[in-house]
Amino acid sequence: MSEREFDRTERIGAEMKRILAVLLRDQVKDPRLADITVHEVRVTRDLAHAKVYFTCFPFDADAEAQERLLNTRLAGFLRHALAQEMRLRVMPQLHFVHDESIARGQHLADLIDQAVAKDRSLTEGGH
Question: Domain 3-99: which topology?
């Protein structure tokens, strides 16, 4: 893949991310989707498909149900709305994927904080 094609798919993905964030905030009124955030959109080189990575807040929300809802009920609506906003010959099929990296990162940070606190209490208790 040439650098130019890579840049184009990245630009399209970034624009789709921006528009999807606005659509989800302003057009989608389902309370189950009120606290999702789109983190990244990866578009295939042929523009046939786009993976939309999202997270839920709070982290213990039912991400599987949200992913299913986005893919079965809203993907078509959002794709149509994107097509009206963007000037593309082909509008990619949207595939929503729950991104667990932020929740995993938060969990690791919590574990580190716990280990540091435990180490600190052992060190202070040993003096």
Answer: GMP Synthetase; Chain A, domain 3 (3.30.300)
